[in-house]
Amino acid sequence: MPNRFASIARLAVLAAALLGLAAAVPAQAQAPAAEQAAAKAFIDELSQRAFAALRDPELQGDAQRQRFRELLREGVAIDYVGQILLGRFRRDATPEQLAEYKEIFPEYIIRIYTGRLLQIGDEQLEILNALPQGQRDVMVRTQL
Question: Is the pLDDT of residue 28 over 50?
Answer without folding.
Answer: no
